[in-house]
Fold these 3 entries.
Entry 1:
Amino acid sequence: MSRLIQNRIGNSLSRLKPQPSILIKNLSTSPEPSLDEESSQSSHIWNVIVGRAGGDRAVSDEDEVFHRLSNDPLCKRVTLSDTLLNKLLHRFRDDWRSALGVLKWAESRKAHHHKHSPEAYDLAVDILGKAKKWDRMKEFVQKMSEDKAVTLNTVAKIMRRFAGAGEWEEAVNVFDRLNEFGLEKNTESMNLLLDTLCKEKRVERARSVLLELKAHIKPDSHTFNIFINGWCKTNRVEEALWTIQEMRGYGFRPCVISYTTIIKCYCLQCDFIKVYEMLSEMEANDSPPNSVTYTTIMSCLNSQKEFEESLRVAARMKRSGIEGDTLFYNCLIHTLARAGRVEEAERVFRDEMPSVNTSTYNSMIAMYCHHDEEVKAVELLREMEGLKVCEPDVHTYHPLLRSCFKRGDVIEVGRLLKEMVTKHHLSLDESTYTFLIQRFCRADMCEWAYCLFEEMISQDIAPRHRTCLLLLEEVKKKSMREAVERIEHVMRTVKLTAPVK
DNA sequence: TTAGGGTTAG
């Protein structure tokens, strides 16, 4: 949503009660931090920027962020390491203005000859690309180029962001200009371009790039796997099989990656006869399936609600002596949970897993919530916080929030939201806002729903058309006239998110 | 990013 539109509607907005952002903001009064460790330094900087310390308002541009940080007495005492800077940029990955402000502030704190780490530069490029601020991104890359700071990794970010936004010819242009960045056109950089195009389903365009370049640059086995994936993504498995032959012609043996890619394609076609045929072929061909292969098949079976068959695939993997990794076990736990086998899921979680991550906990928490065992679910959340192996994300909280709504406990909803924002610095995403707005409407609390709607708009997150309609209907029922006007205005002026399929 | 996920659904 453009600043212009926001300004135009800003005036009528400020007269409305409750004020936008008030919901989350009121939830977010955090205590004065002691700045003795990196995470509290990061928290303080975050609070300065989002306006919970010092000023009241959230900032609107990068210079304001810069000035706030420069003028804050506690920020002046912060030791700004590369890790802290990266952590901050990561937190502001959806807010390019704040990210650039932080970077500028970081620059002002350093000695003249000192450069940011390559990760920080690349993160900034990626954040600008994600926000589709192409001019700012090009300008930033130009400055990096003068500092000889552009790496292949930077180029990867630029290409993938361009291609992801449908600007795939721009991605090709970046490759053509590699020499200007002091980088080489070789198999690695060519593969990056081909992969970018294939992932965006421009496999024919990738093909023409290869034909053009192959006199100078030799393809390798990765090149062919990239094309196999490209064909499979566009559901052209015949071409993928043909690429396997082409690969052999170039003297490369198809590997477990080549076969697993094709298996996934058969999975999506629900052609399980072919899936199992290929599995046997792999075993016979001396490229045995691995944990990735089995996880792919299980996930697909799960999406068909074929949980028992999925568990048989897991058993087959164990029989063949292959060790599962975290993603495999996460899938297994999810399967067991969906199959109603809670005790088995608990056993796998406690005794079998080599390591766990956020998703593992999320699956377990969702399982407990699903079985109305919220006490156990919250216990796991606390365990997660205590062990610090992985941190909760918005998905950790979704089932918990859902349970609160189910019991009609909106106080607890508020408490959980506060915890998300203040304790874990999670920012609500589009799907969380949508979910909350729906549930508050259904709970006959459309004032809260409307607050969240405003909060969402103020963060440039476009609501779904359906969300607007639902909320509009509710505020009309309560004769909230200004809210009605405001929602109708948003529906006319903002490009709304299409409903999810 | 050369291959693998689900997540809030009355």
Entry 2:
Amino acid sequence: MRSSLLQNFNPEISINSGQVFLWEKHGDCWYGIHGSQVVKFARKPDGSFEFQSFPEGSDIEKKIFRFDDDVEAIFSEISRDPFVAGLLKAYPGLRLMRQDPEQCMFSFVCASNTNIPMIRRMLYSLTRKFGQKLQFDGREFFTFPTAAQINKATVNDLRACGLGYRAKAVKAVAESITGDLDLGFLVRSNYHDAKKELLKVYGIGNKIADCVLLFSLEKTEAFPIDVWIARALAGQYRWLHNLPVSDKITAHQYDVLSERLRGYFGKYSGYAQQYIYYHMRQQAGKKW
DNA sequence: GTACAGGCAGTAT
DNA sequence: ATACTGCCTGTA
């Protein structure tokens, strides 16, 4: 913890920013499902945080909360934009989180055209039906099922988890991962190549692909554009595009806008997106 | 009842 | 390329 920026780090605000879904608070402790592990953290009396994972994993918090990022360099770069510079001060402690790639892919496929409470309901349902039960800290948890476990289910089994028409997409993701799609390879690929591969999967479009790339495949230049971000762009960043003020954008508009945003914000565009997204939700008074 | 919520694929122009 | 539509499900 060499810098004040890191000392400002706040896992709670990061978790509540809507990028992760399977976290819950019990008393003074937070518990999250990260693939086959349960991750726990608690604030100690001196204000610092104590992290734990079950089954034990080394330095899980460094991975999940991206302590390996040079946040000073990142913040310095995205601060070139005055609006984002203000948001960095307004929301100290907010960070990108690094998710388990498989879980992330399933999560965001379930996230299409719905809201956070529903996404949580669907994902918890998947864990209860196909995950593994664990006892930890006197509580019961279910791991996030692997693609192989989900792939044993039929589309109708998946529908029973409340997925609706997304069941077909979840099945397609499970088939891809157990088949040709190598997520480890995508981590080593560049942004555009990795995105192209993700887009081949049924149910994965521009926005979901960018979420998976940013949150789990080490592509910090990914800048997911959902309706919230589109609203922000329409308001704050009119000069970056010629789009009408609107929530909806076409696939082509997405591509053009996406490239311009990457050109403007740089290789850490995704960090800027995270702050803008969080701000939009705050402004809208979202609580969940 | 009906509008809506963190998109996507399919179809028609 | 762009426009339009239907889609599960739960909530307001």
Entry 3:
Amino acid sequence: MSEKQINPLPLRLKQARTALGISQKQLGIQLGMEPGTASARMNHYEKGKHTPDYATLKAMADELGVPVAYFFCESESTAELLCLLEKMTEEEKADLVKKVTNTVL
Amino acid sequence: MSEKQINPLPLRLKQARTALGISQKQLGIQLGMEPGTASARMNHYEKGKHTPDYATLKAMADELGVPVAYFFCESESTAELLCLLEKMTEEEKADLVKKVTNTVL
DNA sequence: AGGTATACTAAGGAATCCTTAGCCTTTTAG
DNA sequence: CTAAAAGGCTAAGGATTCCTTAGTATACCT
């Protein structure tokens, strides 16, 4: 019954960071962390040792160009779709909701 | 410069809980919390006083029938779509990614 | 009124995080 | 080759946040 209870955040964070080609420390600095602590803190988050609070989560999301919810997506396709949704208007998303609702239900 | 930095979790939690018509305390108990602490803990989360760790977040999501990422959606339409995505197969989601990609880009 | 249910809060012990101070490997420069 | 720099990573303790206890307040019901 080994119910794997994996926190997606470490993986998603690493994916988004490496996509930008910057180091853990540099990302932390860009988020406004002290240069002396940025490396350790970001590494803790990426290794799942610690969990960032919401303000840090939001800052990371903005810096990485993803929505906060992206960090908690369990599947790749959902993560990808969320990033696309962020680029759409409310109207476009409302339309998509209707379409998908008819398809699924 | 009032940068609205609202944590969506309290609102989303309340939305999903009231949709089920159960009390804060009862939800906490269903998550396996001690009956003596369930009320206070759930209220803290719903008022934004404290933030649940991932295990609690996952348990809440499962019990409420939403994905964990739902708690962090800033817009209603995105929150709604995420819940629909959870009911789709990986294949269906992959197809949707393609469609949306062509629409957006 | 009395009892119950629900939402909510203060305070302190318990748990987690942030910071300091490094180590270890790989890569780059000399 | 050697040294230095860069990136990833970790232990430990002070700083911060959370969990738990205990209780208040309001509304509803009998």
